[in-house]
Amino acid sequence: MKARRNKKQIPSFRKLLKTSKVKLENKLKNKQFKQQSTLKKYRKEQRKLRQAVKDAVSKKPIPLEDPKEKRPGKRIEREEEEEEEALPLDMMDEDDLQLMRDLGQRASFLTRDLSSSEPVHAKKRKHEHVIDKYEKIPRTLQTAPEKELIHLLPIKDKSGIIPQTREKPVTDSNQGEEDQEELELEEEIIEDPIRELTLEEHLIERRKKLEEKKMHIAALGSAILGDPESNIKKLKEIRSMLTEQDPDVAVTVRKLVIISLLELFKDITPSYKIRPLTEAEKSTKIRKETQKLREFEEGLVSQYKFYLENLEQMIKDWKQRKLKKSNVVSLKAYKGLAEVAVRSLCELLVALPHFNFHNNIIVLIVPLMNDTSKSISEMCCAAVKELFKQDKLGQASLGVIKVISGFVKGQNYEVRPEMLKTFLCLRIKEVEVKKDTEDINKPKKFMTFKEKRKTLSRMQRKWKKAEEKLERELLEAEASESTERKLKLHTETLNIVFVTYFRILKTAQRSPLLPSVLEGLAKFAHLINVEFFDDLLVVLHSVIESGDLSYRESLHCVQTAFHILSGQGDVLNIDPMKFYTHLYKTLFKLHAGATNEGVRILLQCLDVMLTKRRKQVSQQRALAFIKRLCTLALHVLPNSSIGILATNRILMHTFPKTDLLLDNESQGSGVFLPELDEPEYCNAQNTALWELHALRRHYHPVVQRFAAHLIAGAPSEGSEALKPELSRRSAAELFETYSMAEMTFNPPVKSSCSKRKSEVSQGDSFLNEDLNQLIKRHCSEVATHLPLDFSKCLKTSLQ
């Protein structure tokens, strides 16, 4: 019978070799680990046993009371027999036997620590005397420490190998600890106590620390500016000083570091946005210069990010008003740090609109525009206005407008009006909204190969190819944004602005934001789509008639309506007579007091209503406005009078037949009705501009000059003509030029006091001759001092 064949597959030699190596290594490691662990355990047990025996030998045990006196004899014999049976005395040495006998006399041998030196049943003896208790404690004998040997190299001689050893010096640990404690006590005694500094010394010390910190910051900053690519890591060293822990200079040093990092980032930041590298770009081999530039860009972006995070944290700490564990910065100092942080963010918003994290800065700045602190709010609004003014393309402006619109809507339109006033600084005045306008410059199309082959010869095609290549290179070198892209951005920005304005007009008509909305609509009205004109005019008129607006706000409504009608609204057949009537009726609300600043808006409204719409304005309406404006010029400030008279001059040139107001004779039938609020039916042609004669004697020389010029019929030549510096300026410019905001006259007004007379007796001619002689005689007499007799006067009065 054949032997059964083993069905297991025989492993190959290579596999067997591999597995055997692994198994051998594992076995060897396990064996070594077990040996080490058992050896450690054995050493530990031996050490404990030696220590226990040493402590037991060195301490003399206290003999206990004889147990034979208290126990009966049978019990003693039985215990002795048990002890003899339990202890194999034949197998023990005499020393061990004696030790066990001594320990056996102690009742707590099995339950007590061998190393303890406390007497047995010490807790039970409560009434023993202190001295007796101390005397009964066993004394420890001073035993010589064990000598450890150090094995040296052996010596070989004729007799053989001689081993060499040396004793290892044993240092007494207790003695060393005592010496160390003595040294520490001596050092404490030698050290002088810290002397308290006076206020003057404290200030001097603080000044020294500040100078050191300033020099350190200046050295690091100059090194970075000298070679930014090599010293970019020093930005981290400067930024680490934002966590200064010295309470004397912590706040000042942090402010200095914030400002220093701001200036460094403004100087070394490139004029392009740094994007993260792709995996393919990281894996490719590059030159050393390129690698150095990449490291610089990565370090710059990371440090810039951490810097912005630090600024944000400072603002949050101020908002939350929570002290940190270090207590280095007080609550009062948080506001100062926050103001410096906000100022730095505002400067970065304006200076680096193209760089990374600009949108993050916008998200931080926009809520601070509505902050309760007036200084921080004004700072942020001023930065946003500056950004709008210098943004030519519109990319940064669009980002800010989106965030502001969302924030205003989220706050339910309960924000500061200054937030919406920033919209007035947008640079989109001359851009048309329609996308299909012909004014848009279409990109130039180059000829295809087929077109060239049909129309051009071989040499012409060659020249054309070179010319097109040159034009493409020039376009790339210019790197100018196309008009199409700019138009798209401006259109999107305007849509968001108008959506915000229309929402406020619809839902929050009594909001303090309404003046800003009306002012913005007046500025951008020429860009509104024609489809919204009818609805918008109805809303504006209803807002005016509601009576909830101030005079300034109603002027903005009128200005907005006429801006709409003067632009694309010319094609609409709308007669805004109700707006003319409202303005004519409310002109006398202006005066030399608080409403004087409203004259600026009035002059703009008159320019749009009468001058630019001259074809739609009747002669009666023009005459009524000229008459009422001359009356208004009598009771406003000089700069307002100059602006109003300049407007009347333009109206007299625009409507030549209004010179009949300079004649005394009336035209037609009727009497002028100055109290009537309808300019068309007040019969202004039957009055005269007598106010000009009163203004001719005005204390301001420019007002006098304008009044005389209008009385003469506003000539462009001759002695009564105005100088070019007055005639070439608009009414609004003259109003600003001669403003009295600084409480001074421009030009200075001459004093009207009369000259002092040399003779005092000016009124002699009005007195009687006899009276004059009597006065002169009494004045010429010498004064004599006579005693006064009051009794005489009293007697005569009684009689």
TrEMBL record:
Spell out the subcellular localization from the entry.
Answer: Nucleus, Nucleolus
Q: Which family does it belong to?
A: Belongs to the CBF/MAK21 family.
| Highest taxon of source | Eukaryota
Q: What is the lineage of its organism?
A: Eukaryota, Metazoa, Chordata, Craniata, Vertebrata
Q: Where is the composition biased (Basic residues)?
A: 40-51
Supply the alphabetized keyword list: Coiled coil, Nucleus
Q: A single Gene Ontology molecular function, please?
A: chromatin binding
Every Nucleolar complex-associated protein 3 N-terminal domain range: 213-307
GO biological process annotation, one example: DNA replication initiation
Coiled-coil annotated residue ranges, if any: 449-485
Major localization class: nucleus
- Please note every region of biased composition (Basic and acidic residues): 52-78
What Pfam families would the database entry show?
CBF, NOC3p
Please give the name of this protein: Nucleolar complex protein 3 homolog
GO CC terms on record? mitochondrion; nucleolus; nucleoplasm
Where the record annotates domain CCAAT-binding factor, the positions are 554-707
- Please give the residue ranges the record annotates as the region Disordered: 27-93, 162-184
Residue ranges annotated as compositionally biased, kind Acidic residues, are: 79-93, 175-184
